[in-house]
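Cross-check.
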Amino acid sequence: MRKLVIIVFSLLFGFSVTANNLQISNLQFIPDNSALGYAHVQFDISWDNSWRDTENWDAAWVFIKYNDGTGWQHAELNFADGSVDGHTAAGSIINTSNDGRGVFIYKSLDASGTSTFNGVQLRWNYQNDGVASFDGMQIKVLGIEMVHVPEGSFWLGDGETTDIQGHFEAGTSGTPFQVNSEASIVLGGGGLGSLGNNNRQGMTNNGDFVPSPYDTISIDDFSDTESQTLPAEFPKGYSGFYCMKYELTQNQYVDFLNMLTSTQAATRYDSNPHSVDEASVRYNITGIHPNLTTASPHVTAMFVEYFDGAAYADWAGLRPMTELEFEKACRGILTPVIGEYAWGTTNLNNTFQIISDVDAPNEDITTGFNTTAGNAWYSFVNSIGAAVRAGIFAANPNNTGRETSGATYWGIMEMSGNCWERTVTVGRPEGRIFQGTHGDGALNVTGNATNTDWPGHSGADGVDDIIGVGYRGAGFEFPTPVPLNMRISGRRLATAFYNIRYYDDTMRFVRTSNF
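Predicted model, tokenized:
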């Protein structure tokens, strides 16, 4: 046994994973109970801009991958022995998922500032994974910063009466709709208690771009006179969930690609994804699998189409977010403000002209007229026309409130601007079949997610169109009316689907907090 420990230690020493400000280091392997088929993986973890208060907290979603010589696999963490499940970390609470795909680690007491937990130990049930030997074994611990959005009621739509983009409403009243449970909802039809969409007003492409053979513009299949049913199983946002604090970063996506097979990676990566100078929009993923790298590790991963994002979510044990959860993640429990952005007001500050400390973990912006505030990155005024570092506004010490940092009610970043985000729509039957199942950590042989309830291909015309998902939040490069698209309630492209990679598209993922 002692020889085994030395071998494994030598293989693991020095492994660390960076995801925005999250650091995992000092990885060790402790094969302390081979008779029962489990061991512990030990490491230190820290991340910045962390908090816990009376309303919510941020956390790290931590999962383990191992390679026994046959490729990278997802490790099963113990989840059957009660609240701690054999996992320990002084000063923290560890909640294990109910499928063993990972754990949430967060502060045990109310506090703000950097979270640091040393000597974290997670129990790996390696025997359940069919591992018989550790000779030549490689292990990696990965983490993603998440924010807990608690269970409770919230509002859809903001009561907008002029610049409507399929905004949600209560019936045909034009007023916001309150979600009070996860029960089924009648969509459209105009009846009392139904969820309306302003009769689909504004849900067109408005001539802002010309659809190609790869693009399909779609609007909701319900209206004031047509009704559909949103099943109880569809995640509506009433139940609590964890949401990624930041959009997917290039570093996270590179880690993902390099741990796939060459066939899977070829499906999920294109070195020349669109007819644009990739470097000019700061898409800097280069190299040859499994040694892909990026010169912009902390910048949002753009050119992420839905199938890329769904694959990452499955691989990481997470799931796509619904458009109802998107509004709760932004607005929180507050009464809606007409025309509000993710930070809860209608004020925009986008006079940015210079990026400082380019591609560094502390990358920041300066502004042409105001050096102390910023809340969104989009090309309506003076944007450089490229994505920026995830969480760029929150890290500036001058940006202390929601409006200046761009934070949602719960402290989630860049949900208005930077890059468009894919969400599962209620406006198509292919979206309404979504039941919120979580990824199991494994993809199929071609690199696609395997969850059968997730939106997928239509195949009806021989073209793999993406049906059941759409866009929310807007991005750094899009014609007028970008500020309208950035609003919490804006649904202009909520059911639009494309099967190409575009340079201001990305995703972020969630996990239901009943684990």
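The chain has a mean pLDDT of 86. Helices lie at 2-12, 250-258, 262-268, 306-316, 323-331, 402-405, 429-432, 482-485. Passed to J.P. for a second look.
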